[in-house]
Amino acid sequence: MTDVFADPDVIRRLLNESKTWAFVGLGDNPAREVFTQARLLQERGKRIIPVHPSARPVLGEPGYASLADVPGGEGPVDVVGVYRRSEHAGAVVDEAIAAGAGAVWLPLDVIDEAAARRALDAGLDVVMNRCPAVEWALRR
């Protein structure tokens, strides 16, 4: 994997300047890593949008079954967190592109270089194989 998907400037900008993160895979199970990451970013002032087939509310925010179901009135999605296994990540990245997201963030061990390149080619910022919590702690 190339470092183009771990650019410190992109990471810093997404953590500092983004306002809204859609977390694909975020259900109401607090034992899941996606729940921990979404809560952390919410505590740091980010608006989170849970995206999960159950479409249940999570962390006080309404849930949606897919990125396509997020209404335009929710405002732009700055970052889509792709908390699905690598074999499903490409479809989520394609949904993020279609939804007009500004960036995709694939966490640790979620790797799909072809999908990441499609996102870059579509003008999205891409972070892959990085943990938002770890990067938050490291940012200066």
Key terms:
globular, Rossmann fold, alpha/beta, single chain, 140 residues, 5 helices, five-stranded parallel β-sheet
How are the strands ordered across the major sheet? 2-1-3-4-5
Shape: globular
Taking all Cα atoms into account, the compactness measure Rg is 13 Å
**Number of beta-strand segments:** 5
Largest sheet: 5 strands, parallel
Q: Give the integer mean of the pLDDT values.
A: 94
For the record, the count of structural domains works out to 1
Span between termini: 25 Å
Identify the CATH class: Alpha Beta
Structural class: alpha/beta
CATH superfamily: NAD(P)-binding Rossmann-like Domain
Estimate the helix proportion, in percent: 25-40%
**Unreliable spans:** none
The helix tally amounts to 5
Instruction: Spell out the helices and strands N to C.
Output: HEHEEHEHEH
Task: Indicate the proportion of strand residues.
Answer: 15-25%
Give a nutshell description of this structure:
The chain has helices at residues 8-17, 33-43, 86-99, 113-121, 132-138; strands at residues 20-24, 47-51, 79-82, 103-106, 125-128. By secondary structure, the protein is of the alpha/beta class.
